[in-house]
Fold this protein.
Amino acid sequence: MAYRHTLGVAASTLALAVTCLAGAAPASAATTTSFPTTVSIAAERSVSGLPSAAEIEAAKKDKDSTNAMIARLEASLASSRAELLQAETAAAEAQESLLTAGEERDLRTADAEKAVKQLEYAKQYLKQSQTDLGAIASDIYRNGAGNSTLGILLNSDDSNDLFYKAATIDTLSQQQVQSVNSATEAEALVSSWESYADAAQSAAKEAAANYDASASTANSTLATYQAAIKPEQDLRDELISNLASLKDQEEAEVRKQVEKQEEAERETALQETLSADDEPVVKPSQTGTIQPLAVDAPQELEVDESTAEPTVKPKPEAQPLDEVDTVTPTLAPEPESAPKPQKTETPQVEETQKPAETPKAEETQKPKETPKATEKPKETPKATEKPKETPKATQKPKETPKATQKPKETPKATEKPKETPKPKPKPQKTEAPKQEQEVAPQSSGRSYGAAISWALNTASDNSKYYVYGANGPNAFDCSSFSQRAFGKSGISLPRTSTQQFFAAPQYVSLNNLRPGDLVFSSSNGGSSFYHVAIYIGNGQVVHARNPNAGISVTPLSWVNNLHSKAARY
C-alpha cells in the first residue's frame, strides 16, 4: 500500500507540473521555438491500486482468475512505465525550452548593452559636430563679409594666386557643408539609437522574464521526473514479484519475460515509424532563431584613434559580398583573353605572310582570316580568291611549308605552326578541373569517425554523466553531447536539439540511416524536438539519455517518440 500512496503523490505532482507548464510561458515571449503546453499520459491504469496478498492467493485458485490477475498486473506495469516516460519527456521539453530562453536572454542583453554604448557614441558624435559648427560660425562672424569669395577674388591681381584662392575657398566651402551634414547626421543617429536602445532594453527585460518562467517550469518538471523514478522502480519490482507468484516462476525469469515484451513493443513502435508516410521537412522561417526587433538597428559608430585626440565617427558600410563576387569574376577573364591578341599583334608573325600588304594588320584582329593569308603566298595580289582556298589550308596544314618556300619571308609563317601549339595549353586547363573533381568528393563527403569515436569513448567513461543544460567537459545533456562529438570531426552544430534538426543541410528517412546521422525525439510531430542521438550503425545509437540512465549505447528503438526523419550534416 505504501507504494500505491507514493505513486499517487508522484502522479499528482506531475499533474501540477503540467498545469504550471501550460501557464508559465508569457504570450509575448520572443522565442520562436515552441513546446507543448500540456502533457498527456500515454496510458491510464486499468486498476486503481495494487492487489493485496489475499487477492493474489485467491486468484491462484482459479485459472481464469489467475489470468485476469496477470493481465491486471501487466497493465499496471505498462501504465507505470508510460507515466515515467511522460515525466521524462516533460522534463526534457522544459529543459530544451529553458536552453532556448537562455540563449535569447543572453543575446537580448548583449544587444541592449551594445545599443546603450552606441547611443553614447552617437551623443559624442553630435557634440563633436556641434563644436565644428560653432567654430565655423565664429570664423564667419570674425571675418564678416570682407573675406567673402567675391572679395578675395577681386582683390587678387595675380592670375595664379586667383585660381589658388578659388580652389581654397571651394575646399573650405565643401568642408563647411560636410560639417553641417555631419551635424545633421549625428542628430538623426542620436534619435535613432535612442529608439533602438529603448526597444532593445524592453526586449531584454521580456527575455529575462521568459527565462525565469522557463526555469521555474524546468525545475518543476525535473523534480517531478526525479521523484517518480524510485517509486516506479519499486512498483515494478512488486508487480514482477506478484507475477512470479501467480505463474509459479522465479522473479529473474519473469523479469526477463517482461523486458522481452517491452523490447518487442519498442520494436513494433519503431517499425510503425519506419513505415510512416515519408513527408518532406518544412523548416519554419524563424525556428530556433531570435526575431529581429520592430525597430531597425541604425548605423553603428566607432572610435577613431588615428587623430591626436580620439574622436567618434560612423562605421563605413561594408559592400555586399554579392557585388564583390560579381565584379571579380568579370575582370578576371578579360586579361586572359586580352594577352592572346596582344601576343599575335606584337610579333606580327601572322602578318609577315603578306610583306607587301602591311596595311592588312587590321586582319590580325580577325584570327579567323589570318590562316587564309598564310596559305596563299602565291596569290597575294588576288586577295579575293583567298577565301576559296581557306578550307584547303585548314584541312592540310602540312602543305603550308610548300607555299612558304616560294616567298623568302614564308619561313616566318612556318614558325607560326610552332606557335599554334602554344594556345594548346588547353590540356593543362583540362587537368585543373580533373584535380578539382578528385578533390570534390573528398570535400563533399564528411568523415564522422572522430565524432563517433569520441562519443563511444565518452559513453564508456564512468566519469562522464548526464546533467540537464550541462556543456561538458564531464557533464552533458543530449544536444551538448552531440555538439561536442561533431566538433571532433570539425562539424559545427547549434546548441539545442531543435536547432540541430532545422539547421541540417539534408534529411533522410530512418530506412536510409548511416553512421553519423542524427535521430530526434519529438512529441508534437516535428514542430520542435527535445532529444537527439547519434546513429552509429547496426541499429544502434549513442546518446546522453537522462540523469537516471546517463550516457550509453542503446538500440535505436529505445529513442522515445522517434521522429521519422534524421538529420545529415
Remarks:
- The first helix runs from residue 2 to 24.
- Strands lie at 301-304, 311-314, 465-466, 475-476, 506-509, 518-521, 531-537, 540-546, 550-555, 565-568.
- Residues 1-48, 323-444 have pLDDT under 50 and may be disordered.
